[in-house]
Every structure is written in structure tokens, then in C-alpha cells.
Design a protein that fits this description.
Length: 332
Amino acid sequence: MTDIDESYLDFYKGPASDHFDGVRFFNPWNPKGKKGFKDVIKWRMESTRKIWPEWVEMPLRPALSPHINGVKITYIGHATFLLQLNRINILVDPVFSNRASPFSSVGPKRVTKPFIPLENLPKIDFVFVSHNHYDHMDLPSLAWLARNHEPTVITPLGNPRLIKPCIEKCGIIALDWHQSTPIGSGATLTVTPSQHWSRRGLDDINRDLWGGFVLKTAGGNNIYYCGDSGFHADMFRDIRNRHGVFDLSLIPIGAYEPRWFMSYSHMNPDEAVQVHDILESKQSMGYHFETFQLTDEPFEAPRTHLGEALAKRNIDTKKFVAPVPGDFIEFA
């Protein structure tokens, strides 16, 4: 995979809104909650980061079906999912590189492999990229998909500046929060808010928008992907009120310690279970764990703490699962 030069790209320009001041995006319900550079230094100086294993082999799972009748959501690893709707395949936040980093030899390194390598994927029709952080927007993976599948990429505002150079043959659909696009077979994808932030280089903090999505299928299935997000009850209540009860919610459960620093941007498992409740989700699946060590908690902590949070609320563990790559949920 080759690196992409990002140094010359122009920033998004558009009218101001309740989450864009004309230059930078922000979270309107908590515009000043993001930690600054001094906090980063404090975290690094005081970090009690646990040692992760160098490599972990995950249990084998059944091979992937190229096409299905109905809806199937397969966990590939970290925040990467494959959504199959009859004969339409959607790849979410595809990260297949060995590091979540602008460099090939420095930065967070994978400790578990993706469920399926890029070359074994079925035909990819659409790609959703939630935001510009390296563990969600992997330009080498996107470039490979562009060369071999020519998908249409859907992403929040601003991100096309980074994606365009590596997908010249592909279409890009840039959406603001609450905007929608049809994706075929009667399905509609709507970008949703999340409490997060963006940065790719030295001078581009919050110049590109972040978010998740709601996918409504022709068969009536309602699927939610959170993206990266901190916990804010009112934001999630609004998503529930706008889109209804979810058949499946994909909710992040990792990269959350220390809480004084990470709580704005990343939920812990207890907060993820609260989101499951707020959304009235019939089934939820965790992600954003056991792949890249981004924060201080131990490798096994998200899975353990999710079980404890479910037990505390007397929720069946089958209702909110912590998957391994290759696990899937299917709707007829």
C-alpha cells in the first residue's frame, strides 16, 4: 500500500450552521469540552498504559458469502463492518493497514488481523467513512478499493478533500448531519451526529465533519452505526426520536481510559450500554476494541467491562455482544 500526500488539500467551505462556524465544525451541545494540547501532554506524562499482547489469534469463523438474500452485518475488525443488503455491499470505515498512522513503521499497530483480506472481499458498491482519524480513514485501503472495486464513497462534509486524491474513478457523496442519500434496493443512508472531533495534520483541527449513520432498508430494517463518539444522552435521544427503534445498533466500546481525558470523545462500555437503552435497540454489537492500542486500558477490559455493565442492568448478554472478527448478525 502506498502513502497519500495530504499536504496540498483545500478545506471545506460552506455556510455557517448550528455545528459549523464557517471555518470549523463543533459539537453544539458541548462546544468546549474537547481537551487541548496541554491535556495531551498531561495524559502522556501521567499515563498508566497497560501492556497489550504483540499478537492475538482470533477464533475461526465461517467464510463470507459474496451475496445474501436479506441483510447481513459482518464484523471485520476495529470499526470496519461489511453490510450486505441483497446484492448491495457496503464497507464501513475500511482499515486494513497494519498501523493506524500516517507512517508505515510508527504508530498504533494491529494486534489482530481483519476477518477477511482486501483481495477476498465481495464486490463493494459503497464505502462509508465516518471521519478523518487514521483508525477510520485509511487512505491506502481506500485507494486499493478504488482501483479494484470503484465504489461510491459516502462521508460527512469536508472529508472529500482527503479522499479524492486516492479514488479518482469513484463517486463521492458528502453529507451534513441529518442529510440522506439512496443507495439502491430501496435503502436510504442518513448521516447522524456524534460527539467527536477531527484532525489529520498540524493545522486542520475540526476542519472536517464527523458522524455515524442510520441505514433503513426496503424490508424495514433500521440499522445504526455510531462512528466514534463520547456519551451525550440528549444527542442519542434525538437520534432515537428522529429514526425510531433500531433493529441493530453498532456502538463503540473501546479506547476510553483515562476517563478524564477520553470521555469527551470515546464511550466506555457502561456508557455504551446506556446508549443501547436510550436507542431501545433490539440488538447491539460493540466495536473499536482489541485491534489497535489507542489508549490506556488493558486489551481484555472492554469485553470484561461490557459484561459487567450488562449484568448491572440485568440485560441479556445476547442483546449486546462483543464480537470477534467474522461474527455477524443476519436479518431474513
